[in-house]
C-alpha cells in the first residue's frame, strides 16, 4: 500500500472516529430518516440495488466504474481491512444522487465529464482504465487544483465532495446503502445503535465489547414489535 493510500485511509478513519456516534446516523440528510417506515423503504431499495452491483439509480456503467475506482483510491482496501468497494460506497453514492442528493446530479455530471476529459488528454484513457500510479497522480492534481479543464465544479470542489461522500458511504448506517456488513463500523470499532450503554461503556476508551453491532433497520423492527 502506498503512502498516499495509508494517508487517505488514516484521514477517513480519523474523521469517522472524531465524529463519534455521528458515524452511525448523522451523515445522511434528515429528509431520508424521519420515520421508521421511511427507514424500511430506504433499506429495501438499498438491498435490492446492492444486488445489481451498485449502479443504475443514477450512474450509468461508465460513471459507476469511474466512481468505484476513484473511491477505492480514496479508501483503498487491503487484507483484513475493507476499502470503499468492500463497503459498497458506490451503491451509497448512487442511491443518494437519485434521492437526498439529487441537487448534486449536475455537479457530478460536470465533474465526471471533466475528470475523464483530463485523463484522456493526459493519459489517453478514462480514469477507470488508468493504473494505480496514474490514478494517484490524477487525484493529487485534482486535489491541488492542477487538473485542467474544470470549470464547475472546480477540481478541488469535486475532490472534496467525493471524499466526503466516500466517508459517508464507509461509515453511515447500512440502511442507506453503504457500510456493507458494517465494514466501516468494524474498522473503527463503532458499535452502532445499541439500545443501552452502561456508564462504564461511556467512560471506556477501549473498543465496545458488548452485543453485536446494531443498525437502524434492526432498531426499527424492535420498536415496531
Account of the 3D structure:
The protein is mainly α and 225 residues long. The protein has one domain (3-224). Helices cover 59% and strands 0% of the residues. The protein has 12 helices and no strands. The protein has helices at residues 3-19, 22-25, 36-51, 61-74, 84-87, 89-97, 105-123, 132-143, 155-171, 183-188, 199-203, 216-224. Helix 3 (36-51) packs across helix 12 (216-224) and helix 8 crosses helix 9. The relative contact order is 0.16.
Brief summary:
The chain has helices spanning 3-19, 22-25, 36-51, 61-74, 84-87, 89-97, 105-123, 132-143, 155-171, 183-188, 199-203, 216-224. The chain has 225 residues and is mainly α.
Coarse shape: elongated
Count of helical stretches:
12
Domain count? 1
Most strands sheet: none
**Can you write the helix and strand succession as a string?**
HHHHHHHHHHHH
pLDDT under 50 segments (min length 5)?
19-40
Distance between the termini: 46 Å
Radius of gyration: 18 Å
Number of strands: 0
Structural class: mainly alpha
| Percent of residues in β-strands | under 5%
Helix percent reads 55-70%
* Mean pLDDT, all residues: 78
Amino acid at each position: 500500500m502506498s503512502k498516499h493510500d495509508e494517508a487517505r485511509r488514516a484521514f477517513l478513519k480519523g474523521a469517522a472516529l472524531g465524529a463519534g456516534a455521528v458515524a452511525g446516523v448523522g451523515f445522511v440528510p434528515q429528509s431520508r430518516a424521519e420515520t421508521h417506515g421511511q427507514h424500511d423503504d430506504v433499506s429495501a431499495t438499498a438491498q435490492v440495488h446492492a444486488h445489481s452491483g451498485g449502479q443504475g439509480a443514477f450512474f450509468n456503467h461508465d460513471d459507476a466504474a469511474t466512481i468505484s475506482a476513484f473511491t477505492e483510491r480514496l479508501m483503498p482496501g487491503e487484507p483484513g481491512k475493507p476499502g470503499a468497494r468492500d463497503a459498497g460506497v458506490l451503491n451509497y453514492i448512487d442511491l443518494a444522487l437519485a434521492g437526498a442528493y439529487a441537487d448534486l446530479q449536475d455537479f457530478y455530471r460536470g465533474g465526471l465529464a471533466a475528470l475523464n476529459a483530463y485523463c484522456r488528454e493526459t493519459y489517453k484513457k478514462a480514469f477507470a482504465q488508468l493504473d494505480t500510479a496514474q490514478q494517484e497522480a490524477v487525484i493529487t492534481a485534482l486535489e491541488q487544483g492542477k487538473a485542467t479543464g474544470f470549470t464547475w465544479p472546480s477540481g478541488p470542489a469535486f475532490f472534496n465532495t467525493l471524499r466526503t461522500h466516500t466517508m459517508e458511504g464507509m461509515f453511515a448506517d447500512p440502511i442507506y446503502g453503504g457500510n456493507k456488513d458494517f465494514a466501516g463500523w468494524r474498522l473503527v470499532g463503532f458499535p452502532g445503535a445499541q439500545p443501552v450503554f452502561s456508564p462504564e461503556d461511556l467512560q471506556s476508551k477501549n473498543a465496545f465489547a458488548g452485543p453485536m453491532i446494531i443498525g437502524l433497520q434492526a432498531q426499527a423492527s424492535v420498536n415496531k414489535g
